[in-house]
C-alpha cells in the first residue's frame, strides 16, 4: 500500500511565479562541471549550490561540498530567500514539451504529477519498485548531502499504476483547483509549472486513491535508496518519508524515449570485417535501401515495425532485423539468471547478441558507455553516423521506445531493466520545492 501525505514545502520566495526560472536547475546527475559553472553564474541563489555544490581547491573531502550546500540552504531559509509554506500542501508539477517523432514531425505533450511525501518501503515489500540498478558512488554522495542538509533537495520521479485512469483524472482536477506557484521555460523549451493545493478534501482523496497502488521509480533510484538508508540509520520516524513526484501510468504525456545504439569500432574484443554478415547469423535481414533518417523513421513507424533497424556504415544501407533461429539459440544460453521475456527485449538482443556475442565484449559500464554511444532520436543518430563515416562506427541500431506496460510487467516479475533501456523525458528539475526532514 502506497502511503502519501502533504507537507509544508520550502520554496524560493519570488514576487511572481515566473521569477523562479533563474533559481532552478536540472537534476544533479544531469549536470557536468561546465554546467555547474554556468548555473553558478546564472543567479546567486541558483539551487545548484545545494544540489551539486562545486568543488573548491581547498576541499579536503567530498563532504566539504555538502557542508557548503547545507550552509547555503540554512542561510537562505534564515534570510527569507527560501520560505516555508504556511499549510500542509500537495504540489502539482506540470511539464509541457515537444518531442521529435520517427517521421521527423514535432509532437506536443503535457505531463502532470503530484508531489507529496511518500512512506519509504523496502523493495521486497513490492510497494515501491525499482526498474534499474544503482551505483555505490552516487548513493554515498547523495547520503552525505542528505546528512548535511537534512532535506530532500531534488525530485524522485515515480509512476503509479492506474488501470482505469482515475488517478490521472484526479491529479488534473487538483491542478485545476490549485494556485500557480512557479513557472519557467528551460533551455530545451520545456515549460515547468508548479501549483500548490492546500484543500484538505482534495488532499485526503488523493491519499486514498494512492493507497492500493504500486509506485515504479522512473528516475531517482539513488535518491530513494539513499533516503531509505538514512531512515534506517536514524531510526526516527521523522525521516520515514521522502519527497516524490508521482505521475499516473495512464498519463498521455508519459513519454519514454528510446536509446538508439551507435556501436563504435575498437581494438578491444573481436575484430570483424562486416557487421552485416555477422548479423545474418542471428537475424533475418530485410534490405530497406540507402541509409537515411527518413528511411529509418519510416521503418520504425510501420504498423508492424521491425524489431531493430540497422544502419550499416560500411555499405551505407539500412536493414530491418528480425530474430532468427540462430539468434534465438544464442539468447537461450545467454544471461541464465534472466527470463526469456527479458532476453527478448530489443535492448537485450543488442547487448547479448551484438555486443557480447558478435564483438565478444563484456556487458560492463565501460563498454556500455564508451564503446556504445547513444542517441535519443533518429535524426540525431543518423547525423552522427553520417558525419563519422565507416571508419569510426560499425553502424547504428535503432529501436522503438519501451512501453510503460512492458517495463511494469518486467519489474513486477522481479527483474530490472537492462542498462540504458529507458529514457523518461523530460527530467524533473530541482528548485521548485524542497522538503526539510524532521
Describe, in plain words, how this protein is organized in 3D.
With 438 residues, this protein is an alpha+beta fold. It has two domains: 4-10 and 83-255 and 424-436, Conserved hypothetical protein from pyrococcus furiosus pfu- 392566-001, ParB domain (Alpha-Beta Complex), CATH 3.90.1530; 259-400, no CATH class. 34% of the residues lie in helices and 26% in strands. The chain is built from 15 helices and 21 strands. It has helices at 33-42, 48-51, 63-79, 136-149, 166-176, 200-210, 221-234, 275-279, 293-300, 325-333, 340-343, 346-358, 365-371, 378-388, 404-412; strands at residues 4-5, 10-12, 82-84, 90-100, 106-119, 128-129, 151-152, 156-160, 179-185, 191-197, 215-219, 241-248, 255-257, 260-264, 283-290, 308-312, 317-323, 372-375, 393-398, 423-425, 435-436. Strands 1, 4, 5, 6, 8, 9, 10, 11 and 12 form a nine-stranded mixed sheet that branches. Helix 3 packs parallel to helix 4. The longest helix has 17 residues, at 63-79. It is globular and about 65 Å long. The chain starts with a strand and ends with a strand. The model has no long low-confidence stretch (mean pLDDT 95).
